[in-house]
Design a protein that fits this description.
Blueprint: H1 3-18, H2 42-54, H3 63-69, H4 75-85
Helix pairs in contact: 1-2, 3-4
Length: 90
């Protein structure tokens, strides 16, 4: 397995774990909370990751701003990247 494949698998697992569907109890106030069809599928995450990996490499000075500006294009990856990149170094 190549490094790119390993990174892709790690990213997909992490993205999937961020938004796996957990049904609410039947006492939920919102009737839409119990609809699993509205939950994003793993295919959506794979498409987003493949789209990101297919983009050209760009020299970026402020990587947090880059992800913020592309949050509409890569909503899940953007959220994950901003979560990790905002952790201060030790």
């Amino acid at each position: 397995m190549q490094v790119d494949d390993m990174i892709s698998m790690i990213l997909l697992r992490h993205l999937y774990s961020l938004t796996t569907f957990t049904p609410q109890s039947s006492s939920s106030k919102n009737i839409f909370d119990d609809l699993p069809d509205l939950a994003p599928t793993a295919a959506n995450y794979r498409d987003e990751l493949e789209h990101y990996l297919a983009t050209d490499i760009v020299n970026v000075k402020d990587v947090l701003m880059w992800w913020y500006e592309r949050r509409d294009m890569f909503p899940n990856l953007s959220r994950m990247a901003r979560d990790y990149l905002s952790i201060p170094g030790m």
